[in-house]
Specification:
alpha/beta, 9 strands, two-stranded parallel ribbon, 38% helix, 358 residues, Ribonucleotide Reductase Protein R1, domain 1, 9 helices
């Protein structure tokens, strides 16, 4: 009888035990449902972020391609790159001769080629810099390079070594200048020898022996101010304010006035600069300065997130059996700050029908 009662107690657990098991099961189900819900929300958020990144990438690429289209289909003026095609009637009034040369006076609404930040599609920002407004490092003159290095804040005692090292790096021979460096000096430091050719990108300046020892902030700024793709007269309509003291006396006051004046009305010649600013430009006024942008342009674009990209483009509208432009280099760069106050382009091709996302 006792055995039977034990069997009965075994077959019918106490009500408290059943309730506890039930609660544990319900808790497990709730946890599983919660985890699945959290996973689902994460997947939805990842999909949303991925969708926005794709949209941003498409907007950035669309902005880049639109700028290339502008550059290859518009005639540059003294004010920059027009966003509208010049009408045939206007073109006829501006044509100088049967060869098709045009008056390059501003027509209004041009994109400035001095690094001004503009709004592109969606949240894209871009800036275009005329390479002839930068400091040319194709084969600079000693005095010009000394002045550039000094103005950038390099130690005056190190300037001769920096100058000669760069000239040895880019010249075509293996002869070492007084303060320079060729294969032997590089091998002594355990570094690849200099290529004895022009820089392929501005950032390559950091590979020159001695230049990599400059202050990090200065070394980061140098690629923004030099060009290995152009050599010739400097464009005072597009030169960045940080470089203007190389050619303009009386800065910063005179440089500030020049920037304000060229924004209102671009300069037409060196004599125009001298008359409007009341200064004497160094060098040959009619030879050392230019005021229409070169065919080499630097285009930089970036968004709220991700890498900023830069493309160096040479316009080739008259090239036979080739495209209207050549891409000299394309590479990521340090992201500029996202400028909420960037200027509008005034072009319907760069107007964003979607509302801004803030």
């Amino acid at each position: 009888m006792a055995f039977e009662r034990a069997r009965i107690r075994t077959r019918h657990p106490a009500p408290g035990f059943v309730l506890a098991v039930t609660l544990w099961i319900l808790a497990g189900i709730a946890i599983a449902v919660g985890l699945m819900t959290l996973w689902s929300l994460q997947q939805v958020e990842q999909a949303r972020v991925g969708h926005e990144r794709l949209d941003d990438e498409l907007a950035a690429n669309g902005t880049r391609d639109t700028l290339l289209y502008f550059a290859s289909t518009r005639e540059l003026t003294l004010a920059g790159l027009p966003v509208e095609v010049m009408s045939e009637a206007l073109r006829a009034t501006r044509r100088l001769d049967e060869m098709g040369s045009l008056v390059r006076d501003p027509i209004g609404g041009e994109l400035r080629l001095d690094g001004t930040v503009y709004r592109g599609l969606r949240d894209t920002r871009f800036a275009i810099q005329d390479e002839s407004g930068l400091f040319a490092v194709v084969m600079p003159r000693d005095l010009d390079l000394d002045g550039f290095l000094t103005m950038q804040g390099a130690d005056p005692e190190q300037v001769p070594r920096l100058r000669d090292a760069l000239l040895d790096y880019i010249d075509s021979d293996n002869l070492t200048r007084l303060n320079g460096a060729e294969r032997r000096e590089y091998e002594r430091e355990g570094r690849p020898p200099p290529p004895n050719r022009r820089l392929l990108t501005p950032a390559e300046i950091g590979r020159v022996l001695g230049w990599d020892a400059l202050e990090p902030a200065l070394l980061a700024e140098l690629p923004e101010r030099i060009t290995p793709y152009y050599a010739g007269a400097v464009n005072l309509n597009t030169a960045p304010p940080a470089l203007l003291p190389l050619w303009i006396p009386g800065c910063p006051e005179t440089c500030d006035r020049l920037v304000a004046m060229r924004k209102e009305r671009p300069f037409r010649s060196g004599y125009d600069v001298q008359a409007r600013l009341g200064i004497a430009l160094p060098g040959e006024v009619g030879v050392d300065y230019r005021f229409l942008a070169d065919e080499n342009l630097r285009i930089t674009w970036w968004g709220r997130a991700g890498a900023a990209w830069r493309m160096h483009v040479r316009l080739t509208p008259l090239a036979d059996k080739r495209g209207p432009w050549s891409i000299l280099a394309a590479h990521p760069v340090l992201r500029p700050p996202f400028d909420e106050s960037a200027e509008a382009t005034g072009s319907a091709l760069l107007a964003d029908p979607a509302p801004d996302r803030h």
